[in-house]
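Translate structure to sequence.
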């Protein structure tokens, strides 16, 4: 991926490096400091050099949001807030120290007199986890977040169903110390001591070095866990069922061996809540799986995802029905012996084709078995069972011409010729071709007729043997 060029100016480079998320950026003006006329730039990302140019323009204001990772947080205290006192600011700092944010950097955010309390970090960390840690730490100290009073950036943004094309952005904030914006660095008494960007970054680096990242990491894990398990207002068990499925889908893969469970949830969700079926349901499951977190890292069925998804879609359509419709369930829907067999065949076929195309197909059968077993994750027993998929001798089958096999009259034949007399004279022979075999020494038939022509005794379709 080609990175956008950064500003040549050292401070501009540092600014764009820290505030690096450029989608859905904010833009305002300084004509009226009480109402900056904020608007969102939706059609294109704000490139680093453009961001630096806008920051330097005294007639414009610029703001940014957060991506998946961040190396800072901001606590926003608006003008007129009950938290806009030295005592309240000290309480906020004490609360943040309990999760490892030991040093903070206060600045005046604008001419209005609000405060942004920056929390610099020495490295990038998951944005949402940090938002959860800050929110629930402040709430535990009775410092509740409230718009116009006390806000945290990043925020614990609303859940969005990404597999349906939904996306929610974190809240945006203005950049610090813009010319014409009224920003200033504050001391502990909340008095302005300058607005130099270089001084701001020196204080930033000092604060970042003092953070307890081990404590913060533990707090982020607790915060996210608390966010998932917090009590929710639910009016019906169906809401809980839907929320649980949406949580599984949005979390995605966190380890190997989760593919079947997640595909089952995705297929069920699409069938019950989205009322999908047939090709629409299959397309939904495939798109959702490929865009879910952890798919590339942990899903071991990426090469046969379509087949796996189709199996679970068929099962979901037999087991579930769209919400509000009459129940119709086939209780045999989740008998997956046949699906396991198909899964094994698909893996073997894909492994064979991959080894052949890569030029790594061994010459001996033993080596072929070992290579296939490792690549397809199948036992030798399973490989022998489906040897027609990879054994070259069994794969080379000559197709017979298609013809009419209905009963037809036998071909016409001419009457047999009259026997001719044997030629006279001496007959020269060899022992190998003239020695006869007595009738008693002829070999007996190697098979008996038994129930020849009678249908076999096994009834039904044999199931696949064991786990394949």
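Result:
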């Amino acid at each position: 991926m080609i990175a956008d060029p950064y500003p040549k100016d050292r401070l501009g480079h540092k600014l764009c490096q820290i505030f690096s998320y450029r989608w859905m950026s904010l833009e305002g003006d300084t004509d009226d400091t009480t109402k900056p006329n904020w608007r969102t730039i939706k059609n294109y990302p704000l490139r680093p050099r453009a961001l630096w140019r806008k920051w330097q323009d005294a007639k414009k204001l610029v703001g940014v949001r957060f991506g998946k990772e961040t190396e800072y947080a901001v606590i926003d205290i608006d003008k007129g807030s009950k938290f806009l006192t030295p005592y309240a600011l000290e309480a906020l700092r004490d609360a943040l120290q309990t999760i490892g944010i030991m040093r903070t950097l206060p600045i005046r955010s604008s001419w209005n007199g609000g405060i942004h309390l920056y929390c610099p970090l020495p490295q990038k960390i998951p944005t949402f986890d940090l938002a959860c840690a800050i929110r629930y730490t402040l709430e535990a100290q009775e410092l509740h977040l409230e718009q116009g009073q006390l806000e945290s950036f990043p925020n614990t943004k609303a859940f969005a169903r990404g597999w349906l094309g939904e996306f929610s952005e974190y809240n945006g904030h203005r950049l610090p110390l813009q010319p014409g914006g009224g920003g200033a660095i504050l001391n502990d008494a909340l008095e302005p001591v300058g607005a130099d960007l270089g001084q701001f970054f020196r204080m930033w680096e000092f604060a970042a070095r003092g953070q307890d990242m081990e404590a913060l990491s533990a707090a982020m894990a607790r915060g996210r866990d608390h966010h998932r398990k917090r009590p929710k207002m639910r009016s019906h068990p169906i809401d809980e069922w839907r929320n649980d499925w949406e949580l599984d889908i949005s979390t995605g893969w966190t380890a190997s061996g989760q593919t079947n469970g997640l595909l089952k949830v995705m297929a069920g969700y699409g069938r019950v809540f989205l009322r999908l079926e047939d090709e629409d349901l299959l397309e939904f499951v495939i798109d959702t799986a490929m865009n879910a977190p952890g798919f590339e890292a942990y899903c071991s069925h990426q090469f046969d995802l379509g087949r796996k998804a189709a199996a679970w879609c068929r099962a979901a359509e037999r087991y579930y029905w769209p919400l509000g419709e009459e129940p119709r369930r086939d209780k045999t829907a989740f008998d997956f012996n046949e699906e396991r067999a198909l899964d094994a065949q698909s893996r073997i076929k894909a492994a064979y084709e991959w080894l052949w195309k890569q030029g790594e197909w061994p010459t001996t059968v033993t080596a072929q078995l070992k290579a296939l077993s490792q690549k397809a994750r199948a036992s030798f027993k399973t490989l022998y069972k489906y040897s027609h998929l990879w054994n070259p001798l069994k794969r080379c089958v000559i197709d017979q011409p298609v013809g009419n096999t209905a009963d037809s009259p036998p071909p016409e034949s001419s009457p047999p010729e009259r026997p001719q007399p044997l030629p006279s004279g001496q007959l020269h022979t060899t022992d190998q071709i003239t020695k006869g075999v007595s009738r008693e020494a002829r070999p007996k038939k190697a098979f008996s007729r038994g129930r020849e022509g009678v249908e076999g005794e096994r009834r039904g379709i044999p199931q696949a043997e064991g786990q394949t």
